[in-house]
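Go through this one:
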Amino acid sequence: MEIIDVSALDRLSAQAQEFQHTRPYPWIRITDFLYPEKFEQLCKDLPDPALFGLQIDYKRALGQASHDRLALQYRPALEKVLTPSWRNFIHELHSDAYKNFWRKMLGLTSRTPVILTMHWRYAPSGASISPHTDARRKIGSHIFYFNTPEDWEEAWGGQTLVLDDGDKWSRHSAPDYSDLREAGASEVLGNRSFLFAQTDHSWHAVKAVQCPPGHFRKVFIVVANRLTPQVIWRRIRGKDADGYRLSGGVQEKPSFNER
């Protein structure tokens, strides 16, 4: 691999048992998953915000507050506007080595299907992600942060928060921050990423970022999905596991509840 540091895969895989027993759910902060020079190139080559769709004040199910951001879903049709560095990175993420990394971290068998979807999210000033758990088809997320000290300050926020509900809240609910305990947080600057496993209690959130106008919290998220009947049905209809049309335009969005 030219972008993903294979030694990082080995180092993290050796911590799989510890990761699986982390509470309140499996999560880990990761440093230097990518080769430093490749990380810097990916930062320079991030997609233009003009390609993104604006998702602001969307009404979420269960009474949860809106998740505000600029959003761009990866689909094969996007390859023609991506730089070589991003095309190569995405191809490495689709490799057997990376999927096997997921299997090892989650304790899955070597034959368990891992269906990946990927998307960029840029958050402007004031944008936030309310406490939530993800859809059951998801087995986990790997969040790559693409801010550097040149364009972001830690004080502006943007950390992904690990929230502990004490196993008290149903995933079909809308607890507030005051109902949950902050058990950890990611780091956002430099060559950092954050991996967590999906459970019925894997509550996480991002508080409103406090950056100046013109700055964005920039992340690229790889979602690992189970091969469920929903995922199969979406594929039959020409959609990815997240509900986006594989042949759609770059800003095409699924129904909001198709998440």
Notes: Residues 96-106 form the longest helix (11 residues). Residues 3 and 87 are 11 Å apart (CA to CA). The first strand starts at residue 27 and ends at 31.
